[in-house]
Amino acid sequence: MPSRVIRHYHYDPSDRHLDLVFVSGRQYRYHDVPEEVYREMRSAFSTGEFFNARIRDQFRHTRVN
């Protein structure tokens, strides 16, 4: 299901960071995200709900722009 909050995301397994672009245009990098969490996000019914439950407030992040 397409997310109404997240426009797109990309995971870098070598650095273990997850880049997210929200529909607002804001971009964030979440650090030290395990690849398993990324895989679970990809297969989640709702990307936004998964993000809120398992990533947001769980991993250190920085704003990219």
Question: Which helices and strands occur, and which strands form pairs?
Answer:
Elements: E1 6-12, E2 17-22, E3 27-30, H1 35-43, H2 47-55, E4 61-63
Antiparallel strand pairs: 1-2, 2-3, 3-4
Structural notes for this entry:
With 65 residues, the chain is α+β, with helices and mostly antiparallel strands. The protein has one domain (6-63). Helices cover 28% and strands 31% of the residues. The chain has helices at residues 35-43, 47-55; strands at 6-12, 17-22, 27-30, 61-63. A hairpin with a 4-residue loop joins strand 1 and strand 2 (17-22). Helix 1 packs antiparallel against helix 2 (47-55).
Could you name the key traits of this structure?
four-stranded antiparallel beta sheet; alpha+beta; 2 helices; 65 residues
Query: How many helix segments?
Result: 2
Strand order of the biggest β-sheet: 1-2-3-4
Q: Provide the number of structural domains.
A: 1
Order of helices and strands: EEEHHE
Query: Residue ranges: pLDDT <50 for 5 or more in a row?
Result: none
Per the principal axes of the C-alpha atoms, what is the gross shape?
globular
Estimated structural class? alpha+beta
**Quick check: average pLDDT?**
94
Task: Give the % helix.
Answer: 25-40%
Q: Largest sheet, if any?
A: 4 strands, antiparallel
SS elements, strand count: 4
What gyration radius follows from the Cα positions, in whole Å?
Answer: 11 Å
- Termini gap: 26 Å
Q: How much strand content do the residues show? A: 25-35%
